[in-house]
Amino acid sequence: MTVPTVEREERPAPATDDDRPAVLDVRGLWKVFGQRAERVVGTPLATLDRAELKRATGCVAAVRDVSFSVRRGEVFVVMGLSGSGKSTLVRCLNRLIEPTAGQVLLDGEDVLGYAGKRLRELRRHRFGMVFQHFGLLPHRRVLDNVAFGLEIRGVKKADRLARAQEVLELVGLAGFEGSYPDQLSGGMQQRVGLARALAVDPEVLFFDEPFSALDPLIRREMQNEVIRLHHEVGKTMIFITHDLSEALKLGDRILIMRDGALVQMGTPDEVVGAPADDYVRDFVSDVPRSDVLTLRWIMRDATPDDPLDGPELGPDTVIRDAVRTVLSARRPVKVVRDGRLLGVVTTAEVLEVIAGAGGQS
Amino acid sequence: MVAVSAPVTRRLPSRSYLTGAVLLAWIALWVLLNGRDTLPLGGAQLTPLHTRFGEGADVIDANRDSNPVFLYFVNYIRLFIDATVTFVQALISQPSFGRPVPLVGWLGVTGVATAIAYLYGNRKVAVLTAAGFVSFGLLGLWEESMDTLALTLTAVALSLAVGIPLGVWAGLSDRFNRVVTPVLDFMQTMPTFVYLAPLTLFFLIGPASATVATMIYAIPPAIRLTAHGIRQTPPATLEAAEALGVTGGQSLRKVRLPLAKQTIVVGINQTIMAALSMATIAALIDAPGLGKTVLKALQTLDVGTAFNAGLAIVIMAIVLDRVTSAASRRVEIAHRTGRSGRRRLRRMETAATAVAAVVLVYLSYTYVWAAEFPAGADLGSYVRRGADAASGWVQETLVAYTNGLKNAITYALLNPFEALLAGSPWWLVAVVAVALALLLAGVRASITAAVGCVLLVALGLWHDSMVTLATTLVATLLVMVLGVVLGVWMGRSDRVDRVLRPVLDAGQTMPAFVYLVPILGLFGATRFTAIIAAVVFAAPVSVKLVAEGIRGVPHTAVEAATAGGASTWQLISKVQLPMARAGITLAASQGLIYVLSMVVVGGLVGAGALGYDVVAGFSQYQLRGKGLAAGLAIVVLGIVLDRIMRAAAARAGGSSATR
Amino acid sequence: MAVTRKYGPRALALVAGAGLLLSGCGGAKVGETQAASDGKGGCGTVNLAINPWVGYEANAAVIAYVAEKNLGCTVVKKDLKEEVAWQGFGTGEVDAIVENWGHDDLKKKYIDEQKTAVSAGVTGNKGVIGWFVPPWMAEKYPDITDWKNLNKYADLFKTSESGGKGQLLDGDPSFVTNDEALVKNLDLNFKVVYAGSEAALITAFRQAERTKTPLLGYFYDPQWFMSEVKLVKVNLPEYTEGCDADAEKIACDYPLYDLDKIVSKKFADSGSPAYQLIKNFTWTNDDQNLVAKYISEDKMSPEDAAAKWVNDNPDKVKAWLPSS
User: Fold this and answer.
1) What residue segments make up the domains of chain A, in order of their start?
2) Which of A184, B232, B488, C35 is most buried, by CB atoms within 10 Å?
3) Tell me, what's the pLDDT at B465?
4) pLDDT in tens, B288-311
5) Mode of pairing for the β-strands spanning A261-266 and A253-258
6) CA separation (Å) from B98 to B95, B150, B465, B520, B532?
7) How far is A65 from chain B (nearest CA, A)?
8) Given its phi and psi angles, is residue B608 left (phi above 0), alpha (psi -120 to 50 degrees) or beta?
9) Residue B598: beta bridge partners?
10) A134 touches chain B (CB under 8 A)
């Protein structure tokens, strides 16, 4: 299968994204587990790969020199297989795990310097987190679980219960206030976990593989729920997953990790369309490309022979959505932005993508 | 997988060959060296260490009135505990406040106890509680029972007040946990007789000493189980709370403690049982209550009276056990009464129960009939006569058969074993012990064994320790045979469980002093009698744990084997027993600890050796140092055996898992 | 469950109501009939240690009975083993021990060194310690009561515990025994086996007499069991003054003990009439055995046994009372 070249000038992410300021800026983050872990960073040891480092020092580098920034309102997905360090990474951000080196800037301020009360205030007011295994309190009712974050902030009982009720309705759990967590299904329990995180109205929401313990059907439902919530509340979200389709579905941008290091970062179509290396390529090979790639990725330059009276579509139109138009038009479809012709797409290009979908390259 | 398991399976037979070789070499050397370097010490002989131990007590005695530790610390603790016990006694057991009867009479106490059982447990245990308390009166032991209850409750309350915070600390801090664990082992294996007399130097004769003696034995389960509960908080829950920004205190109060509640209640249950089991021994230093009745009866070999009082102790134990167990289950469903309507109902129910109890208390405060248990219904004399008759019949009729049994086990098992352990040179036994520990349990255990052997020699009680060890191991063997047979039976059938459980509870809580006389009549003052006493006490625990393990075998495994056409015997031997391995290992190690805790009682019925040393040390002034040394030797034996067994079990479990 | 729950509160309310009704109409009230019974004064409280054997209990019961009835004392009995009881002199919690067997080491510590205790004279009871056989054996083997013949019968006494030798069943750990040394120094083919408690010893002798099995064991008199089974003493080489000086080389019988009474220094100095009573108290082995029999065999309470004996022996009691 042919992979379109990346070096197109038009290809970078949509211009609208660039306008949004970075909420969270992560620079050179390291987490090394083991004795005297701090000796690794900034020395020649840091260049060793994981296995070698383990052999040389007994230390395990879970996160290796990762930098990225998350924009306000963005859904930022960190993806990798188990052991890739993604869960450690997200825990370094809210300091559930203490990073070994690097910076985590929240609105330009390094939270790694926070301690004690300031750190707690940070977690209480500005961050929220949803966990894979929910982490609900089995001895409390659903309503009290949701209000827990407010409770530890010291919010008065009536106020926090009212807010919890509000959030429960938002996640579609009205009527279950008095139930106990173990009386609910996994999906509903995770809704409680989600509500608990939302209740404190945080600026940034962390999701640590929240849906991997759920049935596929429930998982899809929950993913849609997150998309809906993102539309409604517009929170910045950092979402950890090992599931590529989930990453592609939810992510504005995706960061792929392997052995603790960043392999590729980009929009879903960038990751699928232009894998950074064989590892990522292998990863994305099963993805139905027509569902992810946009016309930008398959259009070709118009030749003089092409009749230019066909229908027009934008370059960011996903191929799947363009199929009907392309196939029903007898002539090449024009890819146009701001009135400027970027290229054309014909039945041949579309069929090539669809035929190749799911197959090996 | 194959590559991993191959070396393991190759190592296994070689390890058992080596073990066999060590044992054969031991026997061969024993034949050659029998009787040399066995370090015996005569009954009245002392080592310089024993003398020095003895003088330690004198120092306390001499400094009690001048030392600031006593003046400002120990004495206040004593006053506080004395006042507490006296207050509880004034409430329920002793004439007080110028009244000829306690403040609350039998009706009130029974009412309050029943109400508590109902509110914290359920209707069934409430009925049991009412019946139990009334039976104290019917047995003619109301006042004694209340004295025992007062002392037990005070000791339990104080144990929990100290134990739960320490348990929380041990649950949160690995370092503290490491420090406290051996101390708890020590407290649980050190025979009470050893510290009973010195305690009266610290806390004087009276309720304080009895309470502290009880607490020493009863606190460990409270600490251990609290720590366990705190430790097993799911990490996911903790992390979630932390991400929300909880403080340390909030995490403890709102997350860890509520989640550990059920385990802590189990700890409270065990603390109560342990406290109650001290009732008889504490009577040796004038602790009031049923224990005194038992000991007094023993002086005249009055089995009936002793049994009657022992029965009251068993009933109290069963009532307290069932109520706390029900309460621990209740904790789980505590708030689940759910919607507000049900909640209101529950509140009304609570109020009504409380009002009823208060009315009963008022009645028993005011009216004689409710204050003093009516003397008319005297069940006690029937129980006494029945027990006397039974004991007499057993001693006269069964003795013809029991002698044979005693001799068979003594000559076939106990004597050869003891000859090997106590007849070999001490260094040979030490080398064998270290080698076996190394082979079966690993390097750490072998170091423990080596240190243990050295300590036993240093304590000057090597020979006695080996005699006690032989008796202990034979008793443990019998306990395990019983444990597996009855445990499997019980684990497979709920009906057997229902019938057997009260019997086991009785075996566990009936003071040994009660049945010493009949078994002495049957088996004489012998080591075998001591073994029987130990088995009666220790087997119930093992049986219960094995049954627990059998019941814990996943239903699907049993179903699969049954579907495969396994016979009952195959099902037991190939599926249930191997899968219940963890439970059986636990049963063995607990059985061993329980057997060791009966060493002193064994000393009272002819086992000699360490048990006798402790008893004699308690009774004879000049032997007190030796008694302390013997107590320490028992602790050493307990800790070494426990560590080796645990390591061996872990290793065996580990290698079978890789296979 | 829900249904029964519903009736719960109502039923309980009924109980409560019924209780209130009862309280309105019923029964004698606490404190109505009891007259205030204060002591006659002048004596105060006496703390009596009760050592754990019936003979002691007999002494203590009679003394306590007389002290309460005749002198108006309040007697507090404390059940204690001997050593703990002696410690009580030092801590001021025990006023008197009313039957003491020897215990020279404790005397040295508390009377001579600590000076918290003083002797209050003998009880009149003679303590015999030694080796005994059940009566049937003395009848069947009359010469067994001489220690020189013990080796002849050693085989009879073999048990599972004695390792091929004859068994000498030793005793209650409360007593200092010389038996290991005796066996060695008298060249006896016996092994000392520790029964470990009085109960074990008595049970062993009782069974030995009942089933006519041989038994040689350490025992003592006065002891209530002697009135059930009259054990026969085996005579060891006679005791002479000082023959027990070296514990390792002992080869003679136990001395005859003059059982005595020990009181705390404080109590002796208090001038309490109870102290006079305890000091004056003496009686015979037969007296004690009688009261002990009331307690052990007739199952009377110590109080009742004492009352019975005191009523039967007014003259003896009179002689103990302080002459005021």
Assistant:
1) 23-285, 290-356
2) B488
3) 92
4) 889 888 888 887 888 888 888 889
5) antiparallel
6) 7, 20, 54, 46, 48
7) 24
8) left
9) none
10) yes
Task: List % helix, strand, coil for chain B (3-state, nearest 5).
Answer: 85, 0, 15
- Convert the pLDDT of each residue in B520-543 to its tens digit: 878 888 888 899 989 998 898 889
Burial-class residue C256 by CB neighbours within 10 Å (0-12, 13-18, 19+).
Answer: exposed
B67-102+119-333: CATH, from 1.10.287.110, 1.10.3720.10, 1.20.1440.230, 3.90.1640.30: 1.10.3720.10
The complex scores an ipTM of: 0.79
CA distance B66 to C224: 44
Distance from CA of A137 to the nearest CA of B (A): 7
Question: What average pLDDT does range A133-147 have in this prediction?
Answer: 88
Are residues C264 and C116 part of one domain? yes
CA neighbor of B484 nearest in space, from B405, B414, B548, B570: B548
Inter-chain CB proximity B100 and C30 less than 8 Å: yes
Quickly name the fold that domain A290-356 has.
CBS domain Like (3.90.1280)
Residues C156 and C239 in one domain: yes
* Interface-testing mutation among B239, B244, B253, B328, with chain A (most A C-beta atoms within 10 A): B244
Cβ contact (<8 Å) for B339 and A178? yes
Collapsing DSSP states into helix, strand and coil, what is residue B165? helix
Return residues 284-313 of C near B (CB < 8 Å). Answer: 295-297, 299
Chain A hits for B233, Cβ within 8 Å: none
Chain A adjacent subunits, 3+ CB pairs under 8 A: B
- Label residue B406 by pLDDT band (50, 70, 90): confident
CB spacing of C6 vs B300 below 8 angstroms:
no
A167: Cβ contacts below 8 Å, ≥ 6 apart: A146, A195, A198, A199
Least CB–CB distance from B239: residue in A96, A137, A200: A96
CATH class of A23-285: alpha beta
Residues of B in contact with C5 (CB under 8 A): 345, 349
SS3 A206: strand
Average pLDDT of the residues of chain B? 83
Upper half-sphere CA count for residue A245 (Cβ side, 13 Å): 13
Single out the residue in C249, C284, C303 at which a domain terminates: C249
From the list C83, C200, C297, which residue is nearest B619 (CB)? C83
**Statement to judge: residues C225 and C120 lie in one domain:** no
For B2-43+390-658, CATH gives 1.10.3720.10
Residue ranges making up the domain that contains C110:
45-125+258-320
